[in-house]
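Team,

Forwarding the record for the chain on the shared tracking sheet. I've put the sequence and predicted structure together so nobody has to dig through attachments.
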Amino acid sequence: MVTLEIEGDHLRITMQGHHKLWAMKSTLSLPLRDIRDVRLDPERAKRWWKGIRFPGTEVPGLYAAGTFYESDMRPDFWSVRKPEQAIVIQCATGADYDEIIVEVEDPDAEVARLRNAIGPRA
């Protein structure tokens, strides 16, 4: 699970517990201007093929954490154990990641909060 904090004009994503170890990252930070959309998407989180993992951890069907590269070679960041609690943060072209797929405690509340923070583009 991760926590999301809005700090000024940035979103800070902090991995909690063992997620730090499995994702091989403890935090991510991205400017709010780089967020194009935020959505609930458990089907995306359940997807079997996530890409080529480097670095990170994956147990297919159970857990995905870390950086995954798909055919377009734009990395996605994952930290998901429970797909029903996953949100997808779609990033702008030129951002460090294409999508950030993370498990949060209250997906509905986080999507609403992030959409409010980024304004009408979502």
